[in-house]
Amino acid sequence: MSILLATLLYLAATVFAAGILWKVFSYARLPSRNLLPIAPAPQTWGGIMLRMANEAIFFASLFRANKWTWLFGWVFHYALAVVLLRHLFFVTDSIQPWVLMLFPAGDIAAWLMIVSLAGLLGRRVFVDRVRYISTPSDYLLLLLIVLLGGTGLALRYVVPVDIMATRQFMLGVLNLSPVELPKSTLLYVHLASAIVLAVIFPFSKLIHFPGNFFSPSHNQKYSAGK
After folding, report:
1. What CA–CA distance (Å, rounded) separates 187 from 162?
2. CATH architecture of the domain with range 2-29+37-219
3. Which whole-number Å values give the CA distances from 95 to 34, 38, 88, in the listed order?
4. What is the pLDDT of residue 22?
5. Alpha carbon distance 102, 108 (integer Å)
6. Per-block average pLDDT, block size 10, for the chain (226 residues)?
7. What does each C-alpha distance from 195 to 5, 28, 74, 206 come to in angstroms?
8. How far apart are alpha carbons 202 and 200 in whole angstroms?
9. What local confidence, expressed as pLDDT, does residue 175 receive?
């Protein structure tokens, strides 16, 4: 099982990296001949950079469109960021003190991530106009991330796993010399869900972050008379 999971992690990392690069390259090649900025549009490139930063950090357009969706989405993304930073414990040879300090915050962030995902899933189920445009893949993606986060929390609170042995396994994978992974069905499910998510990420709606920087409605400035 350790060798199988290590092999799948290599394949998932390859597909993830290649898929992201391909998607960004595809976005960059799309022609944008018309002026399509959303008003009020900045008139300078400095204003464009500020607008893009506002979109990337605060989700400004989503905030204006729907406050509840913005709240669940914003909390989810930043909680996920904290959880991912805490996972540096498993993939870095030298453990930085600030990574250890993130463990308590990471626990809170993991719960916030699950709650916000429940809110986003409930939005698709109970809001008529959102349910109408939702596809099966939208539900499956949310459920997959819930499975990933839920198994992570279970490994933390319900069926604890040897985190040092898990760390040695991940470091072995990074160094191309995998070692034995602790025997835990829950850990296998957690890693398998992460592998599936990494493989489908570049080809799903989840890859909206880089697309934001190539959006003509956000990255164009207003020019009078055009």
Report:
1. 10
2. Up-down Bundle (1.20)
3. 50, 45, 8
4. 94
5. 10
6. 94 96 86 66 82 89 92 96 95 90 92 96 93 93 96 94 95 93 95 96 87 75 58
7. 9, 27, 24, 15
8. 6
9. 93
Q: Which amino acid is at 183?
A: K
Residue with tokens 């991330």: 145
In order of 104, 124, 135, 207, the CA distances from 83 in angstroms are: 10, 25, 28, 19
pLDDT score for 222: 66
Say what the pLDDT of residue 205 is. Answer: 87
Q: Which pLDDT score, from 0 to 100, does residue 70 have?
A: 95
Helices 185-200, 2-29: inter-axial angle, 10-degree rounding: 20
Contact 221, 60 (CB under 8 A): no
**Separation in Å, CA 151 to CA 15, 60, 76, 143:** 23, 32, 17, 12
205 close to 138: Cβ distance less than 8 angstroms: yes
